[in-house]
Amino acid sequence: MRLLLLSLVLAVPALAQQAAMDVGPQSLDLTYRPGGVEAPVVAYDGTVTSLGFYGDASAFSGFYGSEDRIAPTGEIQTMTVSGIEMRFGTNVPVASFGERTAVSVFVPLRAQSAYRYFLGDMSVEVQGDDTSIHIGQGDLGTGIGAAVEVPLAAGAPARKLRAFGTYVAGAGIQGDFVMGLPGGARDPLAYGLRSNTVMLQTEARDLFGTTMGASVGYSFRTASTDTSPIESAAGLLNGFTGDDFRRLESSHLVHVGVIF
User: Contact, 77 vs 104, CB < 8 A?
Assistant: First the structure.
């Protein structure tokens, strides 16, 4: 819950850009397998509750979810997952077309970061032996984007309709820190990271003569990590040069929001 409140604070700059606020369910599929480990240390595949602010050049969101599982001993194990995502940057104009209906093409430049936190009983032998896993991600990305803006006739509920979409491919670093891992703790490690983010959004602006609006959108994100940890300064380029990546997570989010 504290992560969700923090996302509210971080969202203030986005609100200044008339971002859309959303609260709703999000589908999350996250499998944590550090390095060359074949069996997942922890995996979550389900729905979480998400709170976010979404604009055409920035996005801030936080989520929380929990899941009960039946251990081989018959005991019920509970695991919780929470996280924050931040994307911010600018859109570099490439071309624009039309007069009344305006179409623009741009190149999005993004700095992206994410944090994931697992807490749960992952030990079969010892009940109540909670393990906590912290995963941090940071990358820089670019891609392609486009926007369409259509003014509406006088008397319409909204003054204009606007739609935009972006695709951003990023590369960077993922770090993790584990406490209470069954079988013994291990040192924090870092790996090369690659991400792909798609965001689509349609907005009705200036509803009923006010500055407010409504929006509906969709976000899809995947992240993959290198199986070889970063062991030197040269290894910081693993996100760009590594060749043995595997899926860490994917998430889908349909957001219906209000624009302030």
Answer: no
Q: In angstroms, rounded to a whole number, what is the distance separating the alpha carbons of residues 42 and 130?
A: 12
**Domain locations in the chain as residue ranges:** 2-259
Q: Model confidence over 242-253: pLDDT tens digits?
A: 777 888 888 888
Q: Evaluate whether 132 touches 118 at the Cβ level (below 8 Å).
A: yes
State the amino acid at position 5 in one-letter form: L
Q: What pLDDT, on the 0 to 100 scale, is given for residue 140?
A: 95
Amino acid found at 155: G
Rg over CA atoms, the chain: 21
pLDDT one-digit tens code per residue, 50-80: 888 888 888 888 999 888 776 666 677 788 8
Q: Write the CATH number of the domain with boundaries 2-259.
A: 2.40.128
Is residue 4 within 8 Å of residue 26, measured between CB atoms? no
When pLDDT is cut at 50, 70 and 90, the band that residue 15 belongs to is very low
In one-letter notation, the amino acid at residue 99 is E
SS3 236: helix
CA distance linking residue 161 with residue 152, whole number of Å: 7
DSSP secondary structure code for residue 39 in this structure? S
Structure-token pair, residue 196: 């792909």
Burial class (CB in 10 A: 0-12, 13-18, 19+), 63: buried
Beta carbons within 8 Å of 19's beta carbon, 6+ residues apart? 11, 53, 54, 55, 58, 59, 259
DSSP-H helix ranges across the chain: 2-10, 12-16, 238-241
